[in-house]
Design brief:
Helix content: over 70%
Distance between the termini: 74 Å
Structural class: mainly alpha
Shape: elongated
Largest sheet: none
Length: about 190
Amino acid sequence: MEPSNSTGSARGRSEVAQVVERNIDALLARRRLEDQRRSPQERLAARVTAFTGSMRFVWIHLAFFGLWIAVNLPGSPLPRFDPSHMILAMIASVEAIFLSTFVLIAQNRMASGAERRAELDLQISLLTEHEVTRLIRLVAAIADRMGIEESRSPDLPELARDVAPEQVLDSLDRAEKSETPQPPSSP
């Protein structure tokens, strides 16, 4: 066993920091690569969505709509060009159509990224589970050879089995179906 001193723990922290930095660098490089692979239309949609989700957009609209309404109020010294505000309503409606489309494009892109991250998490979890199962088998064999009583625990055979993801999903499906209220049967 290695003695715990300040040098050893500092070395451990620096190794962890290096691993974390490597992972961050890899993720950032991947994000840059994915950004480069986006089509010009996707880049445009991202820019429009980023702008329309900003306070600058809000202030510009406040100024634009406020000025439009003020100019078209009765008693305004300026010539009224939209006294019923119908043109303003049409402009706002058309803008809302396009903005909602850009928001949907951004949401689809975000959902796709979230799905990819969830798949990566699942793969890493499955790999981790497999590695832990192998470690349990190894440690149990070592403990058995050394005559350690815990190596005969009745829980070990179950823990040493690989988990089959499809069986877990089937179990989840069965559990969800049993919880889902069934519609009443008609006479």
